[in-house]
Design brief:
The complex is a heterodimer of chains A (298) and B (183). By secondary structure, chain A is of the alpha+beta class. Chain A contains eleven helices and four strands; from the N terminus they run ααβαβββαααααααα. Chain A has a four-stranded mixed beta sheet, with helices on both faces. In chain A, strand 3 and strand 4 form a beta hairpin. Chain A starts with a helix and ends with a helix. Chain B has a single domain, classed as LemA-like domain (de novo design (two linked rop proteins)). The C terminus of chain B is likely disordered. Classes of the chains: A alpha+beta (298), B mainly alpha (183). Chains A and B meet through helix 3 of A and helix 1 and helix 5 of B.
């Protein structure tokens, strides 16, 4: 029952996010049009936003994989990864997802795609090297549950749509930071109007992006995936010990970014000390200790 | 006039219910059969790996004839088994025979270092997992079906059309031992 509610909820929120995005982007273009007194900006905004929504629906998995520099995993090199995924798909009666690998020592994994027929599971080489087979089964079963619940549709859409926003705001923040400190008074005067616009943009965009991500990700979602994953492998201890290993690992995830952080099984930004309020806004993962405790009590 | 309409409507509802339930039972039953053939596929894959394995081990440990015979016998018993239940039982015997084969292989370091052997061993372990998982999938389908045909009012229809509960695959003693989950 819960899973069917979850699927319906995910579909609804996916549509909602697409609509919100179209409105926001069109509105943004409309305002630009007002500002520059140009005609047709509204239409351009409509076209651009529709195209990006449709594009992200059909290609979000590929874009997400590209954003994380993932490459297709073959059976020979990644035997355990391949066979574990294959086996759990058999146990679940779903088509086997495509599997991808990210060259990174930080152990982490995520699933993407738009439905169980177009699904991808991606793991870092660090994860594959550091976990044993039963722990790997735990992680894959968790990801497989995200696929079945259509969490992947919602979170991949959000990753792509918010990605655009987050990249932009990251970039503006950085340029503000460096621009704000360096330079003499003369420079600063010249930058002032631009900086003001930038500041306003950041102030508007970041909370929107963060809200969208939080809309996509609830603590419940992770707990539900943990629980149905454990049901699939009949071995909650596998996932529990995998989560412990992942959270205890000090390696920094090189490709981590705000836009795709919520996709991962464990927050890839955790080892990056930003010391800013943005990190807090984007914190999307329930504490690992709580998840491990729940798994152990099953 | 109106009692007629009400009566007709009621009959219509009942017929719709019967047709819907019957069809869903057939669907679930078909899924069980599909799951069953899934187990068969995995057992066959497993059987296909064995001649290669025996040949590889023979190359290093020629005189362990008894072990090879046991494995080969168990394999052909499994291939010849008729019902799925017999097949699974034969598969358990085969697992035992394979275990002694691998135990024997431990004594040959050169064999252990052979990449073909390592590869076959990995693949066999994996197909063993696959057999277990396809049984699990079968069991979860059986669970759905059995629950449905025993619940009211579907049980009336199931009785009429003689739908019977399917048997679950039990875990072998070996598999039960392997689980060390703390509850």
């Amino acid at each position: 029952m819960t899973i069917y509610n979850q699927i319906a909820g995910n579909r609804f929120r996916s549509v909602l996010i697409m609509v919100v995005f179209v409105f926001l982007l069109t509105g943004f273009f409309f305002l630009i049009g007002k500002f520059f007194d140009g005609q047709g900006y509204f239409i351009i905004g409509l076209i651009v936003s529709f195209l990006s929504v449709i594009g992200s629906y059909f290609y979000s998995d590929k874009i997400v994989l590209w954003m994380n520099r993932a490459k297709l995993a073959d059976k020979r090199t990644y035997f355990d990864f391949y066979t574990v995924t294959e086996n759990l798909a058999i146990a679940d009666g779903v088509p086997m997802p495509k599997i991808y690998v990210i060259e990174d020592n930080a152990p982490n994994a995520f699933a993407t795609g738009r439905d169980p027929k177009h699904a991808v599971i991606c793991a870092t080489t660090g994860l594959l090297n550091k976990l044993d087979r039963s722990e790997l089964e735990g992680v894959i079963s968790h990801e497989l549950s995200h696929i079945k619940n259509y969490d992947i549709l919602l979170s991949s859409l959000v990753a792509v749509l918010v990605g655009t926003v987050a990249y932009t705001s990251d970039w503006i923040m950085r340029s503000l930071w460096w621009g704000g400190i360096g330079g003499n008074d003369n420079d600063r005067d010249r930058r002032n109007p631009l900086m003001l616009i930038g500041m306003i943009l950041v102030l508007i965009l970041i909370p929107i992006a963060a809200t969208l991500i939080q809309l996509a990700v609830s603590r419940q979602r992770e707990f539900l995936a943990d629980a149905s994953g454990a049901l699939l492998t009949r071995n909650p201890e596998g996932l529990a010990s995998a989560l412990e290993k992942i959270s205890a690992d000090p390696t920094r995830f090189a490709a981590a970014n705000n836009a795709t952080a919520h996709l991962f099984i464990s927050n890839p930004l955790k080892n990056i000390k930003r010391g800013s309020w943005i990190a807090g806004l984007f914190s999307t993962h329930p504490p690992i200790e709580e998840r491990v405790r729940l798994l152990r009590s099953m | 006039m109106s009692p007629l309409i009400i009566g007709g409507g009621l009959i219509g509802v009942v017929v719709l219910f019967l047709v819907g339930t019957y069809n869903s039972l057939i669907m679930l039953k078909t899924r069980i059969q599909e799951a069953l053939s899934g187990i068969d596929v995995q057992l066959k894959r497993r059987a296909d790996l064995i001649p290669n394995l025996v040949e590889t081990v023979k190359g290093y440990a020629k005189h362990e004839k008894e072990v090879f015979e046991n494995v080969t016998k168990a394999r052909s018993a499994m291939m010849g088994a008729g019902s799925m239940k017999e097949k699974v039982e034969a598969d358990n015997v085969l697992s035992g025979a394979l275990k002694s084969l691998f135990a024997v292989a431990e004594a040959y370091p050169q064999l252990q270092a052979n990449t073909t052997f390592q590869d076959l061993q990995r693949q066999l372990e994996d197909t063993e997992d696959k057999v277990a998982y396809s049984r699990q999938f079968y069991n979860s389908n059986v669970l759905d079906f059995n629950t449905k045909i025993q619940m009211f009012p579907t049980n009336l229809l199931a009785g009429m059309f003689n739908f019977k509960v399917f048997e679950f695959f039990q875990a072998t003693e070996e598999e039960k031992k392997k689980i060390d989950v703390k509850f």
